[in-house]
């Protein structure tokens, strides 16, 4: 996949650095006390330059720094990375959404000011819980008080768009009070909340504790209860539940993530980053040192590519549509019969659509999953015939 850069209106940069590995995390990270911010920015600039050399660039509407922990780049490091990308030819469209994932301990007044000056206008903060015992168990490097303080610091610096991440389905023995955590999050008045269920990945500390029997994961029933409690509490507080894990105040949905779910092309830079050009996927070399070495040796950092066939495109569209409140149009009679049952069970709702197209008007019925349906998302999608 090369030469399609003109299609990219969305860019992602994977910043792999973390100060230690969280107990549940199996992302591609590089644990570093001293983060090589300048060297990393130079490598990202090299990758971007090589991949976009032959193509005209469109101004990007969203730029997202994820990780890892991008805030570990520090106040100057984020600015340096954005300057490097700009010098390499990246241009931001007017009103572009520029998101930085941050951990609370990195959010100082000086850092927040510098990020704002650099063009960052949205923060996604890894809060996870307001229980210090749960945070220690997760190997997080911040306290509950630090999260609240970081949030207030970011607001005071002028960030009008702040998302917080929370994790549910923690082991019962931790005694974590999920309702209290949701309430504490709402009291901060964030613009967006992402709620993720803890999963046990084999190659993590949690995976090893579970295999040894020293940790017992939450039951599926309790995890489902917590998912539904989040839905009731957050929608009751005025948030729109617009994707399985995502809640937003009206007008505050993540434009970047929404582009993924709509299958709009995006370019992903940095170790392990994925890209999609509308017809094929590409993934970068995952390990930081290997990605950097590949760029040093003249490559563009690609670890592999895959051309999607028509069936894969259709299956992806269906899955991604159903995981959001956009839903999907299911026209096959067999699927219509299945979704009638979903509606009867309370797992889905149907609505008529009537939209103008270039060739006239188009009417159909969209199926949207409810929160109860999202609990069963994978099984429901697997039961459908390809549309
Ligand atoms: S901070 Fe995020 S990326 Fe880093 S180890 Fe923890 S969960 Fe993983």
Please give a structural write-up.
This protein has 387 residues and is of the alpha/beta class. The protein has two domains: 5-261, Alpha-Beta Barrel (TIM Barrel), CATH 3.20.20; 327-382, no CATH class. Helix content is 38%, strand content 25%. The protein has helices at 37-52, 74-87, 109-118, 132-137, 144-156, 178-187, 205-212, 220-236, 255-261, 288-296, 310-322, 333-345, 371-374, 377-382; strands spanning 10-15, 17-18, 30-31, 60-67, 92-102, 122-128, 162-168, 192-197, 240-243, 246-248, 267-269, 274-276, 280-284, 302-307, 328-329, 348-357, 360-369. Helix 6 (178-187) links the parallel strand 7 (162-168) and strand 8 (192-197). Helix 6 runs parallel beside helix 8. The relative contact order is 0.12. Iron/sulfur cluster binds at residues 18, 21-22, 25, 27, 29, 67-69, 103, 126. Iron/sulfur cluster is lined by residues 18, 21-22, 25, 27, 29, 67-69, 103, 126.
List the helices and strands and how they pair.
Layout lengths: L9 E6 L1 E2 L11 E2 L5 H16 L7 E8 L6 H14 L4 E11 L6 H10 L3 E7 L3 H6 L6 H13 L5 E7 L9 H10 L4 E6 L7 H8 L7 H17 L3 E4 L2 E3 L6 H7 L5 E3 L4 E3 L3 E5 L3 H9 L5 E6 L2 H13 L5 E2 L3 H13 L2 E10 L2 E10 L1 H4 L2 H6 L5
Parallel strand pairs: 1-4, 1-11, 2-3, 4-5, 5-6, 6-7, 7-8
Antiparallel strand pairs: 8-10, 9-10, 12-13, 13-14, 15-17, 16-17
Helix pairs in contact: 1-2, 2-3, 6-8
The protein binds iron/sulfur cluster.
Identify the notable features of this structure and list them briefly.
25% strand; single chain; alpha/beta; three-stranded antiparallel β-sheet; 2 domains; TIM Barrel; nine-stranded mixed β-sheet; 387 residues
